[in-house]
């Protein structure tokens, strides 16, 4: 259902080409992440973790500057400070993962967003605006999962694993919000050029 490794390779190659043409620092950092195959919520979570030296789940200015340097995004001090303030949306003096993700996630066209939201609404059987195990019961068949078949996982564990792939790496609570669902598909979307193909893939995956 997600982007295949072929998509990821194409995305990485395309990002490398674009990197040589882009001067905008946010775009450069985004492209640096894409060339490393870090497009989705998981990949950006990995980048964030690497930058977060003291592991307090936020980036201070020093960590941010070092991170930019490690990712080959060069700029002068003033530019870096402006960039930091751009990421730090609530002005708290540090960048949390949500702020990092919202700023760096690749944009999706309106048509793509619409089909992603269609899938979300279909998945949200209970209609309460979040996807939980409750929504998957009776819809998603866990019985074919190899770990269910060999007795390693219960049905709920299969469901939880499924939800985990959409859940934010810093907030794995078994509840997938609209934002988390969109964040996930921003990553998949970045590896697919054509709107038509993306929409087709979504329709097939979710039987829309
Ligand atoms: Ca930190
Ligand atoms: Ca902040
Ligand atoms: Ca629900």
UniProtKB/TrEMBL annotation:
Keywords, comma-separated and alphabetical: Calcium, Metal-binding, Repeat
One GO MF term: calcium ion binding
Record has Hydrolase as a keyword: no
InterPro entries: Ca-bind, EF-hand-dom_pair, EF_Hand_1_Ca_BS, EF_hand_dom
SMART domains from the UniProt entry: EFh
Signal peptide: none
Pfam families: EF-hand_7
Domain (EF-hand): residue spans on this chain: 39-74, 75-110, 111-146
Compositionally biased tracts (Basic and acidic residues): 1-13
Stretches for region Disordered: 1-23
Protein name, as recorded: Calcyphosin-like protein
Lineage summary: Eukaryota, Metazoa, Chordata, Craniata, Vertebrata
